């Protein structure tokens, strides 16, 4: 259960051992949302959605579907939880930025313009005193610190990379190779998995058998 505010990184190693990052496979977030529906200490859930090459084909749709299922379970218990989402992406991303935003809003999630605005909105919902300008996204950012340190030297290979483009050897996740190929990048895919699918206990047993 939740006894305080919590930030959970579902991309951390304890959640991704033997499975893709949730940016690629969002099912781990769906499972966690359904577990949250069983907790009586949850008032607001804040999620971020990542778009771009290499990410899930429709991460906003996946979150909206999971949120709808979570809300169904909450209604059975006579409870309500507010959902806030942010999308990190651009209009030209392959997942269709506008469509992902629309699906989230249609499924009842509040869409914030930034992570900072989302956090302030969540804090406001649970009773914190927040400047209205900050909730609207119009708050002035603090002055960025100035530095007099010299810029790092540009590696000699970097201009060649921009001029000729990358040549990639892709290990493991075939969808990365497919997306690189779709962009016209030369790519060689190698079908590889970590020993015991990343399960450290099984991997240690296999090591003893050698």
TrEMBL record:
Residues 134-153 are annotated as: Disordered. This is ATP-citrate synthase/succinyl-CoA ligase C-terminal domain-containing protein. Residues 5-123 form the ATP-citrate synthase/succinyl-CoA ligase C-terminal domain. Gene3D superfamilies: Succinyl-CoA synthetase domains. The lineage of its organism: Bacteria, Pseudomonadati, Nitrospinota/Tectimicrobiota group, Candidatus Tectimicrobiota, Candidatus Entotheonellia. One of its GO terms (molecular function) is catalytic activity. Pfam families: Ligase_CoA. It comes from the Bacteria. It comes from Candidatus Entotheonella gemina.
């Amino acid at each position: 259960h939740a006894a305080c505010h919590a930030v959970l990184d579902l991309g951390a190693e304890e959640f991704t051992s033997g499975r893709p990052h949730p940016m690629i496979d969002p099912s781990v977030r769906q499972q966690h949302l359904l577990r949250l529906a069983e907790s009586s200490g949850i008032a607001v859930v804040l999620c971020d959605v990542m778009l771009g090459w290499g990410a899930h084909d429709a991460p906003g749709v996946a979150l909206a579907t999971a949120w709808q299922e979570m809300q169904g379970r909450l209604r059975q218990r006579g409870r309500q939880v507010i959902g806030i989402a942010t999308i990190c992406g651009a209009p030209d991303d392959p997942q269709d930025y506008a469509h992902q935003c629309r699906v989230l809003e249609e499924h009842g999630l509040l869409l914030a313009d930034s992570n900072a605005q989302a956090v302030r909105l969540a804090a406001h919902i649970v009773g914190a005193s927040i400047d209205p300008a900050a909730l609207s996204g119009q708050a002035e950012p603090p002055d960025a610190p100035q530095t007099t340190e010299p810029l790092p030297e540009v590696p000699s290979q970097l201009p060649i990379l921009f001029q000729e483009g990358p040549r990639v050897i892709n290990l493991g996740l075939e969808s990365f190779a497919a997306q690189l190929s779709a962009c016209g990048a030369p790519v060689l895919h190698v079908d590889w998995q970590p020993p015991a699918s990343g399960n450290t206990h099984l991997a240690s047993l296999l090591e003893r058998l050698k």
